[in-house]
Write a structure and sequence with these properties.
This protein is an alpha/beta fold. The protein has a single domain, classed as Oxidized Rhodanese, domain 1. It is 38% helix and 15% strand. It has a 5-stranded parallel β-sheet. The radius of gyration is 14 Å and the shape is globular. It starts with a strand and ends with a helix.
Length: 117
C-alpha cells in the first residue's frame, strides 16, 4: 500500500536525494508552476498499460517516489498504480494547493508575468 507524506517532507526528502518528486498534472499545468526539483509525468502516462517508470526515469524499486497534483486526489490514483508496479510510492497530501513557497516556471511564462508593457 502506498504511504502519505506532507508536501514539506516530500520536498525535504527530494532535496536530500532520497526520492523522486513527480508532478502528475498536465504538461501545461507543470509549465505554469511546479515544485522545485519535480519532474513531470502526467497522470495519463502513468495510467498507460505499458508505463515503465524504472526504465523511463531510472527509478529503482527501492527509491521512493513522491507524487503530487493540485489537491492530492489524482495523485492518490497515481500512487496506487505505482505501488501495484512495486514502486515505493507516497501521495503528497493536499497537493500543490498546500504549498506556499517558490514555484519553478518556464522562462517564457515567467517573463510574461513580470513584463510591465
Amino acid at each position: 500500500m502506498f504511504d502519505l507524506i506532507s508536501i514539506s517532507e516530500a520536498i525535504k526528502q527530494s532535496y536530500a536525494s532520497k526520492g523522486l518528486l513527480v508532478d502528475v498534472r498536465s504538461e501545461e499545468a507543470f509549465k505554469k508552476g511546479h515544485l522545485p526539483m519535480a519532474v513531470n509525468i502526467p497522470f495519463t502516462d502513468i495510467m498507460k498499460e505499458k508505463f515503465d517508470i524504472e526504465a523511463d526515469f531510472n527509478v529503482e524499486k527501492e527509491q521512493p517516489v513522491f507524487v503530487y497534483c493540485d489537491t492530492g486526489s489524482t495523485s492518490i490514483l497515481a500512487a496506487r498504480k505505482l505501488d501495484s508496479m512495486g514502486i515505493h510510492a507516497y501521495n503528497v497530501v493536499g497537493g500543490i494547493m498546500f504549498y506556499k513557497g517558490y514555484l519553478e516556471k518556464e522562462k517564457n511564462d515567467l517573463w510574461t508575468m513580470v513584463r510591465t508593457s
